[in-house]
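__Protein archive entry__

___
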Amino acid sequence: PILLVWIYTTWVIVLVGAVAVASLPTWLSGAVRDSSSPGWMFQLALEVIRKLIEQRGTDSYGLGALGAPVAADPGLRLMIEHNAVLFDDMRDPLALLRDEIQPHMQAYWPYMNGDNSHGWEAEKVARYSELMSASQRFVIEELLAAYDFSGHRQVLDIGGGKGGWVLALAQHVPNLHLHLMDLPPVAALAAERMVKAGVSERVTVHGGSFISNALPAGADLVTLVRVAHDHPDAVVKALLLKIYQTLPSGGRLLLAEPMAQPAGEAPVGDAYFHFYLLAMGSGRLRTPAELRGFMLEAGFESVEPVANPMPLHTRMLLGQKR
């Protein structure tokens, strides 16, 4: 799974560095060393490279099982590079846990400081929007494989970024009319993308905040993809209630995002996501049972999990309005 490769690859780099740091006292005991010396850096780089490539012959090397997905997936490479920000915040993990430092991750995601997007730097908006879009591919594949969208007339996607999911859905189900809502600077990027893709007549982009603005009406299905885990409980509950009130009778909500592993399952990616959201300064990883409870509290009934091929990437819940 791509997510497992991403987590494993980034932690390979961290663990190799940790081993190197742990051996420093012994390594330094014989002489004064400079961590910038070529020998030190080459040794560290070699340990990382061995995890990514494999020897094919006496004088030939190629990508290994871990390196091939990294080379083939631009989104995976962007996320691995992005994780350098997280790992910098985790230089002192106890200080992060005690809220004694100001994580750099919060500056990377401007909406962590509120939904007032006035004055946002265009470069920052483009950077984080591109990261979200590039890393969304495997989630899109899961959604399209798990749920039949052909029975719906209009779909509203909330917090959809540059519109990678909406664009894929428009191409997958030709008769759908779609709406995308995100903060104005991001919505502008999405609108431009829809025009270039030739689907702007079927996709309406709305610039606004799901916290302070009304949701676009008319959709019989709302999708909430990788949004809830970025926000505190009060914001998520208010959003779910707003979605419920906007939907017509019989309308549905499909919520999809990484979720904490239920009891009895190995928490493969939980620690990563917990630390990531902690560094972001908002939101948390929730179990399917917690999110189901939030949806029921908002008024949805028959809230059930939707089976998908790779729940490590994302899990899904489907609720219906009475």
Observations:
- Residues 2-22 form the longest helix (21 residues).
